[in-house]
C-alpha cells in the first residue's frame, strides 16, 4: 500500500520552502518514510514543519491538546480541497492523526519545546499522557508566528493587511507583516492557503480523470 508521485527537485524545494502550490509540502507535513535522501530533504523539511506549526497555532484557540495541534497541522493541506467535498472520508484527518500519533509527536515535539522556550506556549501533561498546550494569543506572539511562515506567504499577507519596515539583528532593513490581531492574521493566512489547496486539488482531480477516466477505468 503505497502512494507515489513524480516531481522535479527544484519544484519540490520551492514548495517545501515557499509553499508555492502547497501540495508536496503538505504531504511532507505528515509522517512519511524517506527511502533515499540525496538532498538532505529531512533537514530541509524542518523549515516546512516549523512553518506548519506556526500556521496551526495561528488557527488554534488559547488552549488545546497535542492531538488538536496535529489535527490542525494535518488539515492545512485539505483546506479548500475540492475532493474533500465529495470523494474523501470526512474523518480522514482524525484517522491520520490517531493512527500515527507517535510519529506526529516525534516530528513536532521539538518545535513545541522550541516555542515553549520562547514563551509562546506553555505545556502541561495530564494523567492520560496527553499534553495540553496554552498559547499567547496577543498580537506580538502572532507576529512571531507569522515570521516563521514562508516568505511568499508573508509577502502575500503583507499585501492584504499591510507591511512595515524594521531592522533585523544585523541592522538590515526588512519588511514585516502588520499584525492587528491574531484573528486577523489567521483569517488572512487561511484564505491564502485555501486558495492554493483549491487550485492544486483541482489539478489533481483533472489529472485523475485523465488517467483513469470518470468511471475509474472499469
Verbal overview:
This protein has 218 residues and is mainly alpha-helical. It has a domain at 9-137 and 189-207. The protein has 9 helices and 5 strands, in the order αααβαααββααββα. It has helices spanning 9-18, 24-28, 41-59, 66-76, 92-99, 101-117, 139-146, 151-161, 182-212; strands at 63-65, 121-125, 131-135, 163-167, 173-177. β2 (121-125) and β3 form a beta hairpin. The chain starts with 8 loop residues before the first helix and ends in a 6-residue tail after the last helix. Residues 214-218 have low confidence and may be disordered.
Tell the overall outline: globular
Helix content: 55-70%
What kind of sheet is the major sheet? 3 strands, antiparallel
The averaged pLDDT comes out at 87
Q: For the largest sheet, list the strands in their spatial order.
A: 1-3-2
User: What is the number of E strands?
Assistant: 5
The parts where pLDDT drops under 50 for at least 5 residues are 214-218
Radius of gyration: 18 Å
Structural class: mainly alpha
Question: Could you give the order of the helices and strands?
Answer: HHHEHHHEEHHEEH
Amino acid at each position: 500500500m503505497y502512494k507515489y508521485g513524480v516531481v522535479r527537485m527544484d519544484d519540490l524545494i520551492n514548495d517545501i520552502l515557499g509553499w508555492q502550490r502547497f501540495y508536496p509540502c503538505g504531504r511532507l507535513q505528515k509522517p512519511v518514510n524517506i527511502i533515499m535522501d540525496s538532498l538532505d530533504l529531512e533537514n530541509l523539511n524542518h523549515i516546512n514543519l516549523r512553518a506548519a506549526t506556526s500556521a496551526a497555532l495561528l488557527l488554534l484557540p488559547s488552549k488545546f491538546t497535542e492531538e488538536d495541534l496535529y489535527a490542525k497541522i494535518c488539515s492545512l493541506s485539505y483546506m479548500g480541497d475540492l475532493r474533500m467535498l465529495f470523494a474523501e472520508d470526512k474523518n480522514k484527518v482524525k484517522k491520520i492523526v490517531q493512527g500515527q500519533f507517535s510519529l506526529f509527536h516525534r516530528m513536532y515535539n521539538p518545535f513545541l519545546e522550541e516555542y515553549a522556550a520562547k514563551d509562546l506556549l506553555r505545556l502541561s501533561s495530564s494523567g492520560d499522557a496527553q499534553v495540553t498546550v496554552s498559547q499567547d494569543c496577543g498580537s506580538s506572539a502572532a507576529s512571531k508566528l507569522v515570521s516563521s511562515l514562508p516568505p511568499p506567504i508573508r509577502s502575500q499577507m503583507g499585501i492584504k493587511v499591510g507591511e512595515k519596515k524594521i531592522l533585523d539583528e544585523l541592522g538590515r532593513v526588512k519588511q514585516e507583516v502588520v499584525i492587528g490581531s491574531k484573528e486577523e492574521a489567521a483569517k488572512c493566512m487561511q484564505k491564502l492557503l485555501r486558495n492554493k489547496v483549491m487550485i492544486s486539488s483541482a489539478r489533481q482531480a483533472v489529472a485523475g480523470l485523465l488517467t483513469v477516466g470518470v468511471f475509474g477505468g472499469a
